[in-house]
Design brief:
This protein is of the alpha+beta class. The chain is 20% helix and 40% strand.
Amino acid sequence: MAKPWPESQPALVQAQSAGGINTPCWYVAYTQPRHEKAVDRHLKLRNLETYLPLYSETRNWNGRRTEVSLPLFPGYIFVRLPLGERAKVLEHPSVVCFVNFGGCSARLADEEIEVLRNSFQKRHAEPFPYLAAGKRVRIQDGPLAGLEGTVLRRKGRTRMIVSVDFLQRSIAVDLEPGDLRLVA
């Protein structure tokens, strides 16, 4: 299972040791694929506080264009409850487990959830593949469309330098992350 937000792992583990077992806190539950909305509805019916950030996407089915709401973090749902009551969440057959770091359930501060809520209300967000140095990518748009390369390094927040191999040579080019797709 992939660990979300590994850079905040020490803070989560430290936060886990603070507070009691009866203090409501935000935790991250891992669900079966495409079951996030059903889990969210079920937990709300059980009077549990949840947060499932969604984004809208237009899909084409049989020639019809339809707008659908999809989870921003596929496979994950945020739940606020005392740690001692996590069995209420785990009873749902589509909940696989709670996200753990160092053997402790990953706990998020209320402020982190509020920052997420506020930022997604103010700006459009959608999932994007994590492009780290060393990943193979295919260029989708621009003059080099169709070529494959390796991400050398991220440069700032919006530009990348990618090495593209053709004619047994490499060139370094600046590309927008949206121009790239991970190669399977």
